[in-house]
Amino acid sequence: MDFRLNDVQRMMADTAERFAKREVIPWMERKGDVREMIRKMGEVGLFGCAFPTRYGGSQAGFVAHSVVCERISKADSSLRAAFNLQAMTVPYTIMEWGTERAREKYVADLVSGKKLGCTCFSEPNTGSDLASIETRIEDKGDHYLINGTKTWISNGTIADYGIVYGTFDRSLKHNGICAVVVETNQRGWQARRIEKLGDRSSPIAEIFLEDVVAPKENLLGEWGGGFKVAMTALDRGRISVSSGAVGVAQACLDVSIQYANQRVQFGQPIGKFQMVKALIAEMVTCVEAARLLVWRAAWLNDQDLPFTREVAIAKYFAGEVAVKCAGYAMEIHGGMGYSLELPVERYYRDSKLYQIGEGTANIMRLIIADDALGYKKANRPRLKVPSQFLDLE
Ligand SMILES: Cc1cc2nc3c(=O)[nH]c(=O)nc-3n(C[C@H](O)[C@H](O)[C@H](O)COP(=O)(O)OP(=O)(O)OC[C@H]3O[C@@H](n4cnc5c(N)ncnc54)[C@H](O)[C@@H]3O)c2cc1C
């Protein structure tokens, strides 16, 4: 067992760290346009770790994807969403399940940040229970026709392409779900921005789909096989989400250490007080444990091994750790934690999402407990393995 990053992973981590300092922090200060930032991130290859070179990737793998995502999320947790949409849940899903034509048309442009993606699972009446999707997808012979409403769609107002999950027959539940790539520059795609607590650099929208059209070649997987597509997309998305949670937790720890060393009360830095030390020790331990869980899940993916259970554990724990560390950072900073002058309040707002998005904490607990109790095995053999997409030497 080797817990060290290899040369490529370390190089990617350093690239992301430098990019965060050089580009992300000044961009946040001037409240720049998110499209511009995603394009820059794509240009320097931050989304391409898990992709073969023919799609503009570096083949550095999922652990590298995780370390890059963590480093960017440490600077701005809401940019973590882009790692899902420009890497895992959109282009990777198209690469894994799409037709050759869809792969050629969409994957490289998303990975390079030239085009923006979004993933459309959630609806006003469908959140955790994906099999209850109401959006209708009809097979019209030479194209698909889509009608329905999606909500909470990250980058929904700015995306060029979306993967829309719908059903052709609700009575079939899981077996009626289909996944289709949709181009958003059509009249039937209308997005309404939703305001929210945190994740301010990732615009969220409700999407109204009225007679939206997609060509037959844009179906992902089989007709009625969209639930399986969704489950693999969510597994991969959970690698980014849990990495992002570690990033924001690390940010909370870093500012807390700095503040505990500089803030003096009762004649000494507050870090000298045992109760403050206890918070720091808890944060250090939790951040490191969360990171190792995320790396384990990403590593399994790099080895072509099933990782649904391990990524659920990682996502659950890292989400809890992000929220805990944000609360502790707030406590260590006293009144300054509550101030808009320091980033602690942003970490506090952003961290909560990690217990909600990409499967809530309860849904992760269900996956973990059902597997442990023998009710439902989480890890099943995969139909497709990451290495089959890689370019050979
Ligand atoms: C900032 C943000 C960005 C998002 N981005 C996207 C996106 O890009 N695309 C997209 O499709 N969706 C997106 N979502 C939606 C997100 O995936 C859902 O909010 C999430 O899956 C939970 O669904 P819900 O909100 O409908 O909650 P519900 O499913 O209604 O759950 C409400 C509560 O009930 C609990 N619960 C539900 N079922 C069970 C059960 N069986 N056992 C125990 N407890 C249960 C949940 O854990 C939760 O605590 C985003 C959400 C947010 C907040």
What keywords describe this structure?
alpha+beta; 4-stranded antiparallel beta sheet; Butyryl-Coa Dehydrogenase, subunit A, domain 1; binds flavin-adenine dinucleotide; 15% strand; 4-stranded mixed beta sheet; 3 domains; 393 residues; 10 helices; Butyryl-CoA Dehydrogenase, subunit A, domain 2; 10 strands; Butyryl-CoA Dehydrogenase, subunit A, domain 3
Give the secondary structure arrangement, pairings included:
Elements: H1 7-29, H2 34-43, H3 62-75, H4 80-97, H5 100-111, E1 117-120, E2 136-139, E3 143-154, E4 161-167, E5 177-183, E6 189-194, E7 204-215, E8 219-220, H6 226-262, E9 264-265, E10 268-269, H7 274-302, H8 308-333, H9 344-351, H10 361-372
Parallel strand pairs: 1-4
Antiparallel strand pairs: 2-3, 3-7, 4-5, 5-8, 6-7, 9-10
Helix pairs in contact: 1-3, 3-6, 3-7, 4-5, 4-6, 6-7, 6-8, 6-9, 7-8, 8-9, 8-10
The structure holds flavin-adenine dinucleotide.
The site of flavin-adenine dinucleotide has 20 residues, from strand 1, strand 3 and helix 10.
